[in-house]
Design a protein that fits this description.
There is one protein chain. By secondary structure, this protein is α+β, with helices and mostly antiparallel strands. It contains 15 helices and 13 strands. The strands form two sheets. Strands 6, 7, 8, 9, 10, 11, 12 and 13 form an eight-stranded mixed beta sheet that branches. A five-stranded mixed beta sheet has the order 2-1-5-4-3. Helix 3 packs antiparallel against helix 6, helix 3 packs parallel to helix 10 and helix 5 runs antiparallel to helix 6. The longest helix has 21 residues.
């Protein structure tokens, strides 16, 4: 199966594959579950080649029937359940995803996508399948989805064992203090810091920027702009890489959205644009309009954004409240949004030119060249599943283009200069429970765009998270009520 954005050296045929693996004895493969966790295994070369030459190989469906800690969902779902015996799915090997894992003796590695064994159709909740559907939908309208991802993440001087012994409390940050963009702080852990960058390049993940971010032990890594499928693969694999490299250096990196209540959380900002059939940025202006901007722009902030880009923006804003679990999928992720602008985490349906206070930041001339025109969606945290987040953004944006939705909401600067109008702002759901309820409404835009099968399955997995949270007794509750209640 081919996808856009093949890795360098990816085989184009089974003969190429055999030659590529000539000196290997085993291959590592992995798929992705709804929580963005890689689920995989080693295969012998012979078994792998046989699967690659056919429709694929059997992979237990239970990875879509349990949560990230391998607990079966409270309510059994259609893909994997007792009635169907937790049957096998067909795992189809994507040859275009070939890489070698440099920290594992250069073992060959491939990603897989999951299909129904009876119908051969993509299963509704396979993250790679969901994004491929979004990419194909855009392609049917002559557009290619392009994106970049930025991760912020805390790093601790811990191991999985030490963190468990401490019950995940009183963890020691890799470095002390708030030191964004610090050249000095990276001198403390040079080998780890450089290994993240260098091993990424060897692993086929191009990096644009890598630096400290504000917060004790926080790093930020920006993954290079590429096709949507490739960037989603790169994003999920960067987390795997960071955790693997961390193990070798006694460091525990965490992509949890909000580990500390009194500090900014960890973002997973997504930059998006479209290429038209001629390879031109569809969000940039024509040569005629580039000097003075577009005369018919809805607002001054979109003056250097094309009409297609404005429709795309309107589509994302229109559907944003209904797809929040696809952008912010965890209980903890909404804690990051509680502080709003004060913690660099927008929590409303807002946009603005070069505004980091808005949910969607317009990046366009005059601050960048026309070819770099794009939107930065700042709502997701680092705990996002990049496949679902990208799918939501591009499906909503294409819906705005197809329906030619008008941009009627004024930019965030309107509300900042006139506080009396802040009541007009639509707030995003403030909890996973509220977000899931909005997504699962019968008339939600999520159902219109993604269909009932996906919404019912993914929504039920989020309801499972909510049930576990509602039943949990936290340290905060014990400390607050045990003595004085």
């Amino acid at each position: 199966m081919a996808t856009t954005g093949a890795t360098p050296g990816a085989p184009r045929s089974i003969d190429d594959l055999k030659q590529l693996l000539w000196n290997d004895v085993k291959v590592k493969v992995a798929g992705i579950d709804v929580d963005g966790v890689l689920r995989g295994k080693f295969m012998s070369k012979d078994k792998f080649l046989g699967a690659a030459a056919s429709e694929g190989f059997g992979f237990c469906s239970v990875i879509f029937g349990w949560d990230m800690h391998d607990s079966v969902y409270t309510r059994e779902l259609a893909i994997s359940n007792k009635e169907n015996g937790y049957r096998d799915l067909i795992a189809s090997i994507d040859l275009s995803t070939f890489r070698r894992i440099p920290w594992e003796n250069n073992v060959p590695f491939f990603l897989v996508s999951f299909f129904d064994p009876k119908t051969s159709a993509p299963i509704c909740a396979d993250p790679r399948g969901v994004l491929r559907k979004a990419v194909d939908s855009a392609a049917s309208h002559g557009m290619e989805c392009i994106s970049g991802v930025e991760f912020e993440y805390f790093n601790f001087k811990e191991t999985p064992e030490s963190a468990a012994r401490k019950c995940f409390t009183q963890l020691q940050p890799l470095t002390p203090g708030m030191h964004g963009y610090s050249l000095l702080r990276t001198q403390l852990n040079q080998e780890y810091f450089h290994a993240l960058f260098d091993e990424s390049l060897k692993f086929g993940i191009d990096i644009e920027g890598h630096h400290t971010e504000t917060g004790p032990g926080v790093l930020e890594t920006a993954l290079a702009y590429t096709s949507a499928m490739r960037i989603a693969d790169n994003a999920i694999l960067y987390k795997f890489l960071a955790k693997s490299i961390g193990l070798k250096h006694g460091v525990l990196p965490s992509f949890m959205a909000k580990p500390w209540g009194n500090l900014p959380g960890c973002s997973g900002h997504i930059h998006v644009s479209l290429k038209d059939g001629e390879g031109r940025n569809a969000f940039s202006l024509s040569d005629v309009d580039r000097d003075r901007g577009r005369a018919n722009a809805a607002f001054e902030d979109t003056r250097y954004l094309s009409q297609i880009g404005e429709h795309f923006l309107a589509g994302v804003l229109d559907g944003l409240p209904d797809v929040m679990p696809m952008l912010v999928p965890t209980i903890n992720g909404y804690k990051r949004l509680v502080g709003g602008e004060a913690f660099w985490a927008p929590n409303a349906v807002t946009y603005g030119y070069d505004s980091r206070a808005a949910s969607i930041r317009i990046i366009s001339p005059p601050s960048v060249p026309p070819s770099a025109t794009r939107l930065e969606v700042r709502v997701p945290g680092a705990d996002m599943n990049p496949y679902f987040a990208l799918s939501a953004i591009f499906q909503l944006g294409m819906r705005g283009i197809v329906k030619q939705l008008r941009l009627t909401t004024p930019p965030i600067s309107t509300y900042q200069s006139n506080p009396a109008r802040k009541e007009e702002v639509i707030l995003l759901p403030c909890s996973l429970e509220d977000a899931t309820n909005a997504m699962m409404r019968p008339d939600s835009i999520a159902r219109e765009v993604f269909g009932d099968d996906f919404v019912d399955h993914f929504g039920a997995t989020r309801e499972h998270e909510v049930r576990l949270w509602n039943a949990a007794v936290t340290n905060w509750e014990v400390e607050r009520y045990l003595e004085l209640a």
